[in-house]
Every structure is written in structure tokens, then in C-alpha cells.
Amino acid sequence: MHVSSPIPHKKARIEIIPLIDIMFFLLASFMMVSLSQVHMKGIKVNLPTGVSGETQSKREYISVSVDKDGHYFFDKEEMPNEQELQTRLLKVHESSPDAKVFLRGDRDTAHLNVSHLLDMLRAAGFYKISFEIKSEALKAVPGPRG
Question: Residue 74's domain spans which residues?
């Protein structure tokens, strides 16, 4: 004797439309995260702040830094002496003369160190030089007086 179950049997189905929605969401999320990543080439220095700072894209650039003790860095590599840094800058200028340079100076370094580094960059032939600072958000925008 064969007794049938009171629960109706349905064949299992795989719904593909919700899977496609999830895949599109994951793809869009991955694209947004990968586009928002910034590749830091410079060393960690205590940057001075400024009100007029603007965010710039850092696609193809060179980062040259000086720390508070007066040590020079090319990207994240410390240069043992000024001649080696100058040689490296000349090599980079030969391969890409229109490269942008971001100059990072520690807030506590002597002004002489930053100006000397700027002279070295100009002597190597770089003229697209930006000083990197921390942008300070405007705390209150003053209204018109009247």
C-alpha cells in the first residue's frame, strides 16, 4: 500500500535573478573601493596644516620628503646623502621630464631643509612641484557684516 504525503512536493528551483543582483552589487562595490584607494609613496611626516589646501590626484608623481631631523627621502627610501638623491632625481627627470613632484616637509623641520630640497628639485629640472600639506576644513564661514 502506497500512502502519499499531505505536504505537496515541488521541484527545487534556483532563482538566478537575485544572484545576478548580488553579483552586480559586489562588482559595483569593488569598483568604487578600488577607485577610491590612494597609493601613498611618501614617508609619514607631520605635515603642516593650511586652510587653502586642495586635494589633488596622485596618479603619476614623485614624492620627496624631509623629516624633522633633516633626512631626505625619495618615495619611502631614505637617501644616505644629498648626492645620491640628486643622482636619483636626475635619472627620474631623464625618463619622465613632465612628472609632478610632491614635496613633503615635516612641520618641525627647519625652513632651510625644505628650501634646499626645493633647490635640488629645480636643479634636476623639475618645475611642477607641489607642497603637500594637511587641508584644514573651514570651521565657520563668516557671514556678511551689516
Answer: 61-135
